[in-house]
UniProtKB/TrEMBL annotation:
Molecular-function GO terms, alphabetical: enoyl-CoA hydratase activity
One Pfam family per UniProt: ECH_1
Species this protein is from: Cytobacillus dafuensis
EC number, UniProt record: 4.2.1.17
Protein name as annotated: Enoyl-CoA hydratase
GO terms under biological process: fatty acid beta-oxidation
Length: 257
């Protein structure tokens, strides 16, 4: 691919992105965020692609936003360049994103991991928000996403101390779905992504939307939203195919239509 800080390619029905700035532990500069979004949005409009896999390499998923790039920034620089517009676009993507964290996921790297729909990690992965030691705080959703995920008690502790969260702890608190040995993380999570890519794409799409809706919506409104999406699936060809295949005791062939 013609990216500088990531590798992006397709493999069957998967769009695969590997952060690739290993000399600085995949520190995330603005160019990298923009490349991640370009790649993801290409996958998003590619009918062949049904799931996106995101990982780092070497010793890190990503050790945070690039400190060198922002050390001299002022508030107005962020405002004028609308610093987080790419992060907002990331949250708008409809295809499922499967993240695989090996090594460090710190600061902005942890925030990027928290943007994934399913998150896996190697058993030596380390998460954390060290911003407090730099005189800043998370700015790409960290205080919001972590708190919604684990509750105020642990979020406040981890954000106040900047203390590292072990893979085991991250798993216990529901931050990651499952842990794998480092050597098999990539291979196993590609398998999971491939499996998800084999499910009815419209179901995955509307489930993602509905589950995300639940996070910050009163239950009545969320129930209504879910119901409309449920109805909508019955106007898809895949619903007819999926149920017919069940009745005919064969495997369905989904078209994403
Ligand atoms: C720029 C970074 C970096 C970062 C590591 N490097 N993290 N450069 N920004 N976030 C660079 C180091 O400077 C070093 O470069 C090289 O990567 C290897 O790192 P070392 O520190 O030598 O490795 P090690 O001693 O093993 O320590 C690993 C580490 C440490 C614990 C992860 O690198 C570290 O504390 N990094 C910063 C983590 C952090 O504070 N992240 C939050 C950033 S703020 P050289 O050239 O010396 O070899 C943030 C705000 C988000 O993310 C806001 C919204 C996006």
């Amino acid at each position: 691919s013609n990216f500088q800080f990531i590798n992006a390619y397709t493999e069957g029905q998967l769009g695969i992105i590997v952060l690739n700035r290993p000399k600085v532990l995949n520190a995330i500069n603005r160019q990298m965020v923009s490349e991640i979004l370009s790649a993801m949005e290409e996958f998003e409009v590619d009918d062949r692609i049904r799931a996106i896999h995101l990982s780092g390499n070497g010793r890190a998923f990503a050790a945070g936003a690039d400190i060198d790039e922002m050390a001299n920034d002022h508030a107005i620089d962020f405002e004028l360049r609308n610093q987080f517009k790419d992060w907002d676009r990331l949250a708008m993507l409809k295809k499922p994103i499967i993240g695989a964290v090996q090594g460090f996921a710190l600061g902005g790297g942890f925030e990027l991991a928290l943007c994934c729909d399913l998150l896996y990690a190697s058993d030596d992965a380390e998460f954390g928000f060290p911003e407090v030691s730099l005189g800043v705080m998370p700015g790409a959703g960290g205080t919001q996403r972590l708190t919604k995920l684990v509750g105020k008690t642990k979020a406040m502790e981890w954000l106040f101390t900047g203390k590292r969260i072990s893979a085991k702890e991250a798993h216990q608190f529901g931050i990651v779905n499952q842990l794998f040995a480092k050597e098999i993380l990539q291979e196993e999570t590609i398998k999971i992504a491939t499996y998800i890519a084999g499910q009815a794409p419209l179901s995955i799409r509307l489930i993602k939307e509905s589950v995300n809706k639940a996070v910050d919506t009163p239950i009545e409104e969320g129930m209504h939203f879910e119901r409309k999406n449920f109805y909508l699936l019955f106007s898809s060809e895949d619903q007819k195919e999926g149920m017919k295949a069940f009745q005919e005791k064969r495997k369905p062939i989904f078209k994403g239509k």
